[in-house]
Amino acid sequence: MANDAEPDLRALFDAPPAGFVVQRDALAKRLKADGDAKGAAEVKALKRPTVVAWAVNRLALRRGDDVARLLEAGAVLRKSQRLAVSGSRDSGLRKAADARRAAIEALAGMASDLVAEDLPPLTEAQRTAVATTLEAASADAGAADLVLAGRLQRELEAPSGFGDLGGMEVVDLDDSEPALDESDEEDGAAEAEAEAREARERALADARAAVAAGEADVAEAREGAAEARQELTEVEEQLAALQDRADRLRERATTQQRRADEADEALAAAQRTLDSLL
C-alpha cells in the first residue's frame, strides 16, 4: 500500500465507527483509481471497529507515548515475574504489578475522555474492556504491536495468568546475592502463588467484563439495525407515495395529450371548411 495512504488510514481509525464503512470504501476507491489495486483490496477488507476497539485506536493514535510507557511497564513486570520464579527475594513483582495497573487505569480514563469528544462517554463495561485490551497489550509483544498500530477492529482478550510467558527462562541471580534458606523459599513460593491467584482472578473479572462489553456491542448493533429498518420503511413509504403521484401525473399527461390531439383534428377540420368556402 502506498505510503501516502497512511494519513488517510490514521484518519479512518481515529474517526467514530459510524462513518467507517463510507470512509473506508472512499479510500479503497481512490487507491484503485491511483493504480494501487492491492492496497485498495486491503483497505476494502478492513472491518468497522467496535466502540471499545475504536477507543483504544484513538488512544494509541493520539496518546501513543503514554501507551508506549504502559508497554514498558509491562516489560518490567514480565522481568519481575521471571525473577520471582527464579527465587529472587528482590524481584519487585508487587511494585511492578501496581505500576502497570495504575498505568492501565489512567489510560482507560484517557480513552473515555477521547471518546467523549464525539460520542457519549464509555460505559463501565466498555471502559473495563478497554482496560482488558491494554492489559493484553502489556503482557504480549504481538498484542502490543496491534495496539500501537492504532488499527484494532475488536478488543483483545484478557491474558491468562501472568500473560504470555511461554518459553520463559529462569534468570541467573547475581553471585553476590545470598542463598535462600528454606523459609525464604517457602515465602517466595507463597508470594508467587498469591500473585498468580490474584492475576487469575483479575483475568476472570476482565473476561466477564469483556463478555458484558460484547453484549453491549450486540445491543448497540441491534438498535442500529432497528433504526435502519425504520428508516428503510419510511423511505419505502415515500417511494410509494412518489410512485402514486407519478402514476397520476402520467394519467393526467395522457388525458391532456388526447385532448390536444382532438383539438388538432377539430382545427384541421375547421381549416378545411374555411378553405372550401373561399
Percentage of β-strand residues:
under 5%
Q: Mean pLDDT, rounded to whole units?
A: 81
Tell me the span between the first and last alpha carbons. 86 Å
The portion of residues assigned to helices is over 70%
- Please identify the structural class as seen in this structure: mainly alpha
The general outline is elongated
Number of domains: 2
Largest sheet: none
Alpha-carbon Rg, integer: 33 Å
Low-confidence parts: 162-185
Per DSSP, the total helix count is 9
**Sequence of secondary-structure elements:** HHHHHHHHH
Number of extended strands: 0
Explain this structure to me?
The protein has 2 domains: 42 residues, no CATH class; 160 residues, no CATH class. The chain has 278 residues and is mostly helical. The chain contains 9 helices and no strands. Helix 4 crosses helix 5, helix 5 packs antiparallel against helix 6 and helix 7 packs across helix 8.
Architecture blueprint of SSEs:
Layout: H1 6-14, H2 20-33, H3 37-44, H4 51-62, H5 64-86, H6 93-115, H7 124-139, H8 141-149, H9 182-277
Helix pairs in contact: 1-2, 2-3, 4-5, 4-6, 4-7, 5-6, 5-7, 6-7, 7-8, 7-9
List keywords for this structure.
single chain, 278 residues, mainly alpha, 2 domains, 9 helices, 0% strand, elongated
